[in-house]
Design a protein that fits this description.
Blueprint (H helix, E strand, L loop, with lengths): L3 H13 L16 H16 L3 E4 L4 E6 L4 E7 L16 E3 L2 E3 L7 H16 L7 E7 L7 H9 L5 E4 L2 E2 L3 E4 L1 E10 L4 E6 L9 E6 L10 E6 L2 E7 L14 H13 L2 H9 L12 E2 L3 E2 L1 E12 L2 E12 L5 H12 L4 E7 L2 E2 L5 H14 L6 E3 L10 E4 L2 E2 L13 E3 H19 L2
Parallel strand pairs: 3-6, 3-7, 7-22, 8-23, 9-21
Antiparallel strand pairs: 1-2, 2-6, 4-5, 5-24, 9-20, 10-18, 10-19, 11-12, 11-17, 12-14, 13-14, 15-16, 17-18
Helix pairs in contact: 1-3, 3-9, 5-6, 8-9
Length: about 425
């Protein structure tokens, strides 16, 4: 019999080999050539499995099998940027019993697991008891325009899951908001530039200071030239939903300048350099979803009406009983500026732990792992929010060190197999006779 797991690994390696970081629009996708190539490969693969496919102008593709009410399995093939500081090929390499590659966990690998699990069940003679629809998005990491497009031209399934979070089952996702903040430039700061996305802990941040700032500090490089200081701080990237797993370069820079220059830099350090938002009066939590997280993901200087401003993109994951408006008002008051606005957001998700979908997925996870786990809450945002009744389901195990959005994103092959077995078991329980 066909080894579906090995076939899945081979196809996943093909998918990883395509760089699908969002790039300039092309004729086959508004999100760039790499996204277009990934969607084409997914459609080709699903067609070979006997599924009906549709590519919506490079925004997303769907892969259907079965008849009746639609159950959705939603994920994405776009990825966050990567650098060349990996110990293996970021475009896919098997090394030391692990699969490396940007997207192996977020979210190419898990979606391939689910696709091949359905294919295995069909090959084994099982019949779907509904229409199973895979939705592969091309813009999850930078805007969800793929989901917006889907909702324009089609009807979203009522229920489903997204393999783009954590095991055992995520029944609660915090509110996710990106805020644009404009502040007066600190004294002596000429310019600043750091970060690429609000949802990544900043790995590098540089600035120019119109003053001599000598001395060194850990993770800080200083170059003096013509009475000015050019300072670069280095940190460690991580997902913004778990900012404590990273080392924010903006923090390093502000802490260094606070020690050297004081003044406004002291105030910025007190207000912005806290993972829990305590400096901006947004240290909030509730019983359902836990604590708020706070990440300064981007910092740059922008000229507005002839005046240079410090522009920040702050990523906040807030408890489900608060709103983005609550948070914005607190930020405006604490930072003493009206120039705080919502850049992007996803409303919170909460599905009762006794819901049938939650219980069936949980049962599959516990069956394969021999655990007695309970549903959990995360700060990440998944496509489950696009569904009326949706949850995130895997792929990160409770004891796994997640490398999502970090260098050397990877998964042990043994964990990948366990992941595959869980998806196979869950899909069989939920969707097949």
């Amino acid at each position: 019999m066909k080894d579906h797991f090995q076939a899945m690994i081979q196809k996943t390696m093909q998918l990883l080999s395509i760089d699908s970081v969002q790039s300039a629009p092309c004729h086959s996708s508004p999100f760039g050539k790499g996204v277009a190539q990934c969607l084409e490969l997914v459609c080709q693969t699903a067609k070979e499995m006997g599924m009906q496919t549709h590519n919506e102008s490079g925004y997303y593709c769907t892969c259907d099998i079965g008849e009746g009410e639609i159950f959705g399995i939603l994920g994405h093939i776009d990825v966050v940027p990567y650098d060349d500081d990996w110990s293996a090929n970021p475009l896919g390499e098997i090394k030391d019993g692990k699969i490396f590659g940007r997207g192996i966990l977020d979210d190419k690998g898990p979606m391939m697991c689910c696709l091949y699990a359905v294919n295995q069940l069909i090959d084994e003679g099982y019949k779907p008891k509904c229409k199973i629809r895979f939705i592969f998005g091309g813009n999850e990491e930078s805007g969800w325009k793929c989901i917006d497009k889907y909702n324009e031209v089609d009807v979203m399934p009522q229920s489903g899951f997204s393999p783009d979070g954590d095991f055992p089952v995520i029944n609660c996702e915090k509110g996710l908001v990106g805020y644009d903040v404009f502040l007066d430039m600190p004294e002596n700061m000429i310019s600043v530039d750091g970060g690429s996305r609000g949802n990544i802990v900043m790995a590098k941040c540089s600035c120019a200071i119109d003053k001599t700032v000598d001395g060194n500090s850990e993770g800080i490089q200083v170059e003096l030239k013509d009475g000015k200081s050019y300072i670069t701080a280095f940190g460690k990237p991580a997902h913004a939903s778990t900012p404590w797993e990273g080392d924010n370069a903006f923090w390093r820079l502000i802490n260094f300048l606070s020690e050297k220059l004081g003044g406004t830099y002291d105030i910025l350090r007190q207000k912005l350099c806290h993972n829990d938002g305590s400096g901006c009066d947004v240290k909030l939590e509730d019983e359902k979803s836990g604590k708020l997280t706070f990440n300064v993901g981007v910092a740059n200087s922008q000229t507005i009406n002839g005046k240079t401003k410090l522009h920040l993109i702050i990523d906040i994951r807030h408890p489900v009983t608060f709103t983005k408006e609550d948070i914005m008002q607190r930020l405006q008051k604490s930072l003493d500026t009206p120039n705080v606005s919502v850049r992007n957001f996803h409303n919170p998700l909460y599905i009762d732990k006794d819901n049938k979908l939650v219980q069936n997925l949980l049962a599959a996870y516990n069956e394969v792992t021999d655990e007695n786990a309970s549903p959990i809450t995360i700060g990440g945002g998944t496509y489950a929010r696009a569904l009326e009744c949706g949850v995130a389901f895997g792929p990160i195990f409770p004891d796994m060190q997640s490398t999502i959005h970090q260098k050397d994103e990877c998964v042990k092959i043994e964990d990948f197999k366990k992941m595959y077995d869980i998806y196979y078991t869950a899909i069989k329980k939920l969707l097949f006779n």
